[in-house]
């Protein structure tokens, strides 16, 4: 009974902006680890083949090292791999693939589908119908020739393509690289393995997007999985198992704080997140000085625990209470300055005023602490 | 605060204890002359407060040379209803004790208590300086520094503010100034004074630009790379397609075809050329034959021509021969004329020669006659000359000698006359009988004699009379006379004459002979300039010439007188003309002969030619030739026609094949082949180039680099934004804090101004002095005068300084702070009027503050209304 692993959109060679250097490096590293994990999974589940539905590389001109590392990471699965060029790594006259070949980095068991056509893995009873992108963008359905492709008797007809299934995916109207939604049926495919959509998504019984094995953006769309597909015989319904492969979970929260309990809830949710979280927080509303102190402390703890934590607080106003001010022992004109800043902040959403208030509060607090020691 | 008592010991010149007692709550005038210890007292008060008791830098307090001294200062004062006693010892015994009411403090505690009370600070180490003095620095004025109000206020700064806090109540902020400083420090790490980025902030700004540029470059390179990839794809496709279609092979085939066709046409053209050559040869042959034929046919015509020519020659000859006799006649005539003319010419020549000879004879005869006459004359003249010469020789006399003789004679004459005048005259008149003898000379009758010498007169019978002529000159005259007589005698002798007259005669004869000689010479020269001999030879010469001319004339024949002889010139001219005429006729004759012979020759030629043709015309071979020629011509014409037809045919064939186009086709196909191959080769080369280039570029991992750079830029941006916001926030905060603090200061401004005005109205009733936000007296105005306090005169500045200090004292007093005012010899630069005003001010201030006024000019302060305290007196008292 043929069984194979369906994955896509590795986007190797991508660098992560908006992160600290160290965090970015770790996230890059995790993507290599994800490939190793896929190889392991394929071995563990005794898969006959691994199909990668495009965008193995994020760009054509990635470094030689990246190219070598990608193929090195496939080592632990010795069965056949079929890799399909996607829109990021299209099989152009000169491409990342020709470079990989020139470097001699491609192992024997890795098949590069650089031409449209059929790759027959007869020992595995798999016939892979490939629709590689040979240009950066196409506006025609590259899977259309599938119908005309013949496959050996007794082999599964598996389509491998990269693009947008028309009419089904949100935000992708008029997108390039279109794929007909009924391709599997029209071309008598047992399964159509798709790439391009980074979340795991089923289109119909025989058509799936595997999604990327390691998330690389905050948009929560079920990324970080691989699919193990079993088809008992040609024509039989595929059995698709989704297996999580992602190391880091990405969270992007937009919160508005108004009362003390909002803060408490937020802190609790942060505490509940696993260490492998990559968190992007944006806080709005207002907070007391004491509350901010609590928040900063909690963020400091979380920063150390999580892979990455970024918190945007510029939209969060400081609302010192009388107790706050009393605690700061800000008498005389300094007190007046605090009041002035508070008014400015509320009145005109003045970032500078908010920051100034925070700095002033910080300085006063330091002074208090020094005094109390 | 009121200082009540002061005691010092072992301080400078006060080795023994010195006490200043009974200090009044108001004004105290403490005076003493220089060196009396006035400054030491002031220094002691300052040291007691400002110097750390354990300071090692207060050597100046030690009495001179006393290393074991422990300068001690004891102060008693009252403040806030408590009595304070301070005892401070330095150097050898370092101590500080303070009693406030019932509480006691010692060492550092005591010092801190004092600093807090008065508002100043201690130095970290070393001696206390102006910057440490705080409020006392403002109120305790050292000698000569009364005008430096601004520095003092600045140094008092923080102490003043905290001291005045109670006045402004809740608005002052504890530690607000430190906070401002902290904020300022933090701001200044990010921004410059003018608000420009600095440090990391600036660096980030620069980095950002750098990153953006790098990214832009990388993007461009990525784009270049992609363009090259696209080019590669396109090229590879074209290359493969061309390789499959091989269009150059088709072109090559066409080229071959065109070449074959062209070669065929070339063959035809060659044939055509050969036939054309053949045709040309035929045509030439035809033309020759035709010529031959024409030649034969033209013989008769030629013969006639020759006959005509012969006739013409005969005729010409006949004409010429007919002219011959006339020409011969002219020639003979000319010769006769010539001979005649020649004869005439000779005759004329002979006549002319005879005439010339006759003339010569006449001339020579005449010449001979003249010469003969001259010779006779010359001989006569010569004789005359000889006579004159003889006469001159006989009478030769030197005219100079005669002149000198005459002179001597004249002189003798004169002397003789002179001697007579001086000589003794002896005159006598004797009786006829009587005779006398004078000097042996007898005298008779009457007479007279002049006696120049001693004379003896013998009178017979009487005796002898001696006469001696008198006079001195007589002797010399007598001698001179004698000399002259001698000279005359001598000269006469030399001249060979008897007398002077004779000499003159001789001279005259000599001179007339000279003249005669000259005259004879001249005459002789006129007739015989070269001498008589010459004249003789001339005469004989003329004689011989004459002889010769006569003989010539004789031999010359005499012409026949009947004949008419023309003049020689005419004969010569006629002869010349006859010669010329003869020459002309002779040359005409020669020409005629030549022409005659030429005509004969041409007549003979014409005859020969005509004869030859006439013979030929009659030969049978000629007829035969003519027939042969006609046949040959017919043959050749037939051949020509055939050839021309063939040529035309082939010409058409060649023309229709368009060989020019064929040539162009070959070129075109050749080019096409080359071009197609070249294009393909170029593609191949470009493909290889692009591949190599892309391989190199690909290895650089451009997009990955770009990704990384973008990440770095993002980070840089984030950091920049953070710092930017922080900078804005700090700037805002600093501005706000500063603003608020200034507002606070402004609230202190008003009361200070009030106190200042109080004093100022005494000093300058119409003036105003404004206190600025820093609580400094600043702008001063008086009537139209407006300026800063620092622009005033030294005296005025000192006065302003003092009233400002007093105003501060008033302000401090209102805030419940201690105010002790110490003035060390102040106001020395004030004039008496101002000093008077200042005294009023000080008296007024003394109602609120204790004032210690130290001076060495007590007389100036007599009217202060307080008893002066004499240091000198107190010293003695203490002792």
Write the layout of secondary structure elements.
The complex is a heterodimer of chains A (373) and B (879).
Chain A lengths: L2 E5 L13 H24 L4 E4 L11 H9 L8 E3 L12 H8 L6 E3 L4 E5 L4 E6 L24 E7 L1 E2 L12 E2 L3 H4 L4 E5 L5 E4 L2 E3 L15 E6 L8 E6 L4 E9 L2 H13 L4 E11 L1 H17 L2 E11 L3 H7 L3 H17 L2 H22 L1
Parallel strand pairs in A: 1-2, 2-3, 3-4, 6-7, 7-10, 8-9, 10-12, 15-16, 16-17
Antiparallel strand pairs in A: 1-13, 5-6, 11-12, 13-14
Helix pairs in contact in A: 5-6, 8-9
Chain B lengths: L1 E8 L8 E3 L6 E5 L6 H13 L21 E8 L2 E8 L5 E6 L2 E4 H12 L15 H6 E2 L7 H20 L7 H15 L8 H47 L1 H51 L1 H96 L4 H24 L1 E6 L5 E4 L2 E4 L1 E6 L3 E5 L3 E5 L5 H23 L4 H28 L4 H24 L12 H50 L3 H37 L1 H41 L2 H62 L3 E5 L5 E6 L2 E4 L5 H21 L5 E5 L7 H15 L3 E6 L12 E3 H8 L1
Parallel strand pairs in B: 3-19, 3-20, 8-18, 18-19
Antiparallel strand pairs in B: 1-2, 1-4, 4-5, 5-6, 6-7, 9-12, 10-11, 10-13, 13-14, 15-16, 16-17
Helix pairs in contact in B: 4-16, 4-17, 5-16, 6-15, 6-16, 7-14, 7-15, 8-11, 8-12, 8-13, 9-10, 9-11, 16-17, 17-18
Structural commentary:
The complex is a heterodimer of chains A (373) and B (879). Chain A has nine helices and 17 strands. The model of chain A has no long low-confidence stretch (mean pLDDT 87). Chain A has helices at 21-44, 64-72, 96-103, 183-186, 260-272, 289-305, 322-328, 332-348, 351-372, and strands at residues 3-7, 49-52, 81-83, 110-112, 117-121, 126-131, 156-162, 164-165, 178-179, 191-195, 201-204, 207-209, 225-230, 239-244, 249-257, 277-287, 308-318. With 373 residues, chain A is of the alpha/beta class. Chain A is elongated. Chain A has a six-stranded mixed beta sheet, covered by helices on one side. In chain A, strands 5-6-7-10-12-11 form a six-stranded mixed beta sheet, with no helix packed on it. In chain A, 32% of the residues lie in helices and 25% in strands. Chain A folds into two domains: 3-244, Metallo-dependent phosphatases (Purple Acid Phosphatase, chain A, domain 2), CATH 3.60.21.10; 249-372, no CATH class. The longest helix of chain A is centred in the first third of the chain and has 24 residues, at 21-44. In chain A, α5 (260-272) runs parallel beside α6 and α8 (332-348) packs antiparallel against α9 (351-372). In chain B, α4 (149-168) packs across α16 (702-763), α6 (199-245) runs antiparallel to α16 (702-763) and α7 (247-297) packs antiparallel against α14. Chain B is of the alpha+beta class and 879 residues long. In chain B, the strands form five sheets. Chain B has a six-stranded antiparallel beta sheet. The mean pLDDT of chain B is 84. Chain B contains 19 helices and 20 strands. The longest helix of chain B is centred in the middle third of the chain and has 96 residues, at 299-394. The chains are: A alpha/beta (373), B alpha+beta (879).
């Amino acid at each position: 009974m043929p069984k194979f692993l369906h994955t896509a959109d590795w986007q190797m060679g991508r660098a992560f902006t908006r992160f600290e250097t160290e965090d970015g490096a770790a996230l890059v590293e995790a993507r290599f680890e994800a490939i190793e994990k896929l190889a392991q999974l394929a071995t563990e589940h005794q898969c006959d083949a691994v199909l990668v539905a495009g965008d193995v590389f994020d760009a054509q001109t990635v470094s030689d090292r990246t190219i070598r590392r990608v193929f090195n990471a496939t080592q632990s699965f010795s069965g056949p791999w079929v890799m399909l060029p996607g829109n990021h790594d299209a099989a152009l006259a000169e491409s990342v693939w020709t470079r990989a070949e020139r470097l001699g980095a491609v192992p024997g068991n890795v098949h590069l589908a650089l031409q449209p056509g059929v790759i027959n893995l007869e020992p595995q009873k798999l016939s892979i119908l490939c629709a590689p992108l040979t240009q950066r963008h196409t506006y025609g359905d590259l899977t259309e020739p599938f119908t005309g492709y013949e496959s050996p008797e007794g082999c599964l007809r598996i389509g491998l393509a990269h693009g947008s299934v028309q009419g089904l995916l949100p935000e992708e109207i008029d997108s390039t690289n279109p794929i007909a939604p009924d391709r599997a049926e029209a071309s008598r495919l047992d399964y159509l393995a798709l790439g391009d959509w980074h979340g795991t998504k089923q289109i119909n019984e025989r058509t799936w997007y595997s999604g990327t094995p390691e998330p690389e953006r905050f948009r929560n769309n079920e990324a970080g999985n691989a699919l193990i597909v079993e088809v008992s015989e040609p024509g039989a319904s595929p059995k698709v198992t989704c297996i999580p492969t992602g190391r880091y979970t990405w969270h992007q929260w937009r919160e508005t704080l108004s009362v003390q309990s909002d803060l408490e809830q937020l802190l609790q949710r942060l505490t509940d997140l696993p260490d492998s979280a990559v968190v992007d927080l944006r806080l709005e509303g207002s907070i007391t000085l004491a509350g901010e102190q609590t928040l900063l402390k909690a963020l400091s703890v979380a920063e150390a625990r999580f892979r990455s934590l970024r918190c945007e607080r510029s939209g969060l106003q400081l609302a010192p209470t009388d107790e706050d001010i009393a605690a700061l022992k800000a008498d005389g004109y300094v007190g007046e300055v605090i009041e002035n800043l508070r008014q400015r902040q509320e009145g005109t959403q003045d970032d500078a005023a908010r920051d100034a208030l925070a700095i002033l509060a910080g300085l006063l607090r330091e002074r208090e602490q020094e005094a109390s020691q | 605060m009121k200082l009540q008592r002061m005691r010092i010991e072992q301080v400078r010149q006060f080795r023994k204890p010195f006490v200043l007692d009974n200090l009044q709550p108001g004004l105290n005038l403490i005076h003493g002359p220089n060196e009396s210890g006035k400054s030491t007292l002031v220094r002691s008060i300052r040291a007691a407060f400002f110097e750390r008791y354990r300071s090692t830098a207060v050597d100046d307090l030690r009495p001179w040379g006393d290393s074991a001294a422990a300068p001690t200062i004891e102060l008693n004062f009252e403040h806030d209803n408590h009595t304070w006693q301070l005892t401070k010892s330095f150097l050898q015994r370092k101590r500080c004790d303070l009693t406030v009411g019932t509480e006691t403090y010692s060492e550092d505690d005591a010092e801190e208590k004092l600093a807090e009370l008065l508002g100043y600070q201690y130095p970290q180490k070393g001696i206390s300086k102006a910057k440490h003095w705080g409020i006392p620095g403002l109120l305790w004025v050292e000698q000569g520094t009364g005008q430096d109000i601004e520095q003092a206020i600045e140094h008092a700064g923080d102490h003043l503010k905290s001291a005045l806090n109670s006045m402004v109540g809740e608005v002052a902020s504890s530690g607000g100034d430190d906070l401002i400083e902290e904020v300022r420090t933090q701001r200044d790490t990010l921004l410059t004074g003018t608000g420009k980025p600095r440090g990391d902030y600036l660096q980030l700004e620069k980095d950002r630009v750098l990153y953006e540029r790098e990214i832009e470059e990388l993007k461009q390179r990525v784009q270049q790379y992609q363009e090259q990839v696209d080019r590669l794809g396109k090229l590879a496709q074209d290359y493969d397609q061309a390789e499959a279609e091989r269009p150059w092979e088709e072109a090559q085939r066409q080229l071959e075809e065109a070449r074959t066709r062209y070669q065929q046409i070339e063959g035809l053209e060659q044939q055509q050329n050969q036939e054309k050559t053949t045709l040309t040869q035929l045509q030439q042959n035809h033309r020759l034959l035709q010529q031959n034929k024409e030649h034969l046919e033209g013989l008769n015509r030629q013969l006639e021509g020759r006959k005509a020519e012969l006739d013409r020659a005969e005729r010409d000859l006949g004409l010429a021969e007919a002219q011959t006799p006339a020409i011969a006649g002219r020639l003979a005539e000319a010769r006769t004329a010539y001979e005649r003319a020649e004869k005439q010419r000779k005759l004329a020549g002979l006549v002319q020669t005879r005439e010339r000879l006759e003339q010569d004879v006449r001339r020579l005869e005449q010449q001979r006659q003249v010469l003969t006459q001259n010779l006779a004359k010359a001989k006569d003249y010569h004789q005359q000359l000889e006579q004159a010469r003889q006469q001159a020789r006989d009478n030769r006399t030197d005219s100079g000698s005669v002149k000198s003789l005459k002179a001597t004679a004249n002189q003798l004459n004169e002397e003789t006359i002179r001697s007579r005048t001086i000589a003794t005259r002896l005159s006598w008149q004797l009786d006829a009988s009587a005779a006398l003898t004078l000097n042996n000379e007898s005298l008779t009758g009457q007479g007279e004699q002049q006696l120049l010498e001693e004379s003896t007169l013998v009178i017979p019978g009487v005796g002898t009379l001696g006469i001696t002529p008198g006079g001195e000159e007589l002797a010399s005259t007598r001698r001179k006379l004698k000399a002259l007589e001698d000279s005359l005698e001598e000269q006469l002798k030399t001249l060979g004459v008897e007398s002077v007259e004779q000499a003159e005669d001789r001279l005259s004869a000599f001179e007339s002979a000279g003249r005669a000689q000259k005259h004879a010479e001249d005459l002789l020269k006129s007739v015989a300039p070269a001498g008589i001999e010459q004249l003789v030879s001339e005469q004989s010469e003329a004689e011989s010439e004459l002889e010769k001319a006569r003989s010539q004339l004789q031999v010359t024949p005499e012409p026949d007188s009947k004949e008419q002889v023309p003049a020689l010139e005419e004969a010569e001219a006629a002869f010349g003309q006859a010669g010329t005429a003869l020459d002309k006729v002779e040359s005409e004759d020669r020409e005629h002969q030549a022409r005659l012979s030429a005509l004969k020759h041409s007549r003979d030629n014409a005859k020969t030619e005509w004869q030859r043709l006439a013979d030929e015309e009659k030969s049978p071979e000629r007829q035969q030739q003519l027939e042969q020629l006609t046949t040959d011509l017919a043959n050749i014409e037939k051949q020509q026609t055939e050839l021309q037809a063939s040529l035309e045919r082939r010409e058409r064939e060649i023309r229709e094949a368009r060989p020019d186009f064929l040539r162009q086709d070959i070129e075109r196909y050749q080019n096409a082949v080359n071009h197609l191959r070249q294009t393909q080769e170029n593609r191949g080369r470009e493909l290889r180039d692009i591949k190599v280039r892309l391989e190199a570029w690909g290895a650089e991992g451009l997009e990955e680099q770009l990704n990384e750079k973008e990440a770095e830029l993002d980070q840089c941006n984030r950091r920049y934004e953070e710092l930017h916001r922080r900078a804005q926030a700090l700037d805002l905060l600093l501005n706000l804090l500063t603003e608020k603090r200034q507002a606070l200061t402004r609230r202190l401004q008003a009361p200070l101004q009030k106190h200042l005005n109080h004093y100022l109205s005494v000093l300058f009733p119409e003036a105003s002095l404004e206190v600025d936000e820093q609580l400094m007296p600043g702008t001063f105005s008086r009537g139209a005068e407006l300026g800063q306090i620092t622009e005033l005169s030294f005296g005025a500045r000192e006065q302003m300084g003092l009233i400002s200090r007093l105003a501060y004292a008033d302000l401090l007093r209102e805030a419940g702070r201690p105010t002790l005012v110490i003035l060390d010899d102040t106001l020395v630069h004030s004039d008496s009027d101002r000093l008077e005003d200042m005294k009023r001010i000080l008296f007024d201030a003394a109602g609120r503050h204790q004032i210690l006024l130290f001076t060495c000019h007590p007389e100036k302060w007599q009217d202060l209304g307080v008893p002066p305290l004499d240091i000198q007196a107190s010293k003695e008292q203490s002792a």
